[in-house]
Amino acid sequence: MATLAARQLVNSTVPAFSTIRSWILRSGHAELTRPLDRTRRWFWRIDHTIQVGDQKPLAILGGSLDRVAFGQRPLDRDDPRLVALVPMTHSNGDAVEYRLEVAASRAGVPRPIALDRGGDPAKGIRDYAEWRPEVAHVADAAHVGANLLKASWESQPAWSLFLRKLQETATELRQSACAELTAPRLRPKGRFLNPEVQSRFVRMLLTRLDEPDPDPRVVEHYGWLREYRAAVTEWLAEHEWVRRTVGHLRRKVVDRWRETWLGKTIQWLRRRLLAKPTT
Prior knowledge:
With 279 residues, this protein is an alpha/beta fold. It has helices at residues 2-6, 17-33, 93-107, 119-130, 141-154, 157-173, 196-209, 216-222, 229-249, 259-274; strands spanning 42-48, 58-64, 81-86, 112-115, 136-139.
């Protein structure tokens, strides 16, 4: 646009919103129709996106196992390609399996397919891989870690009491003179996928309570946190285990010959989180 403006072909260097929308649509269409090399060993990442109206699109991202430096760096944004994006009004295992067949006609049969192993896509992948021994259905590391944290924490009565106290305090502080001390809202879904915000907030409160002259407002509203210090310290440590493990897994090859190694790592993490007695 700047070049066109310099040549006085247009009177503005800022494109109109309709122009930007047209560029986005053209770019998306090109990504969905560009030829893909079926001879490469592909990996796929599959999930439903956010629901729009009565439709929930099924997104399939793929990349070449031979072109990604697994073990040296995580995936870059330029590594995956959009293999398919299918709006689905009714999603079930058969519908997902059919869409995988269609996607394979464009990119070839993948080696690993990563998913959180929940819902209709998981059943479709299992059915798709049943007659294809070269396809491995592997767990999404982030969801595995989140499920382990959920199973560990929700089995402890102290966790439920802690959440209730945190929410009650947030209700008291919201729209008050101490509103800046309000705890971040817990996500209604996927709260165990990204607990970093709450972890940082609770760690900050404990640090302020330990000061020689703590803020009276923090003591008044969050003095009860001292009763949960041991439990909170353990929860923060467990979250750190999961965060480091997920980061490590994301830098490794996820394929058939890595399944044993991946399974051992997940089993180690599961023992650390679920083997302790519930109190």
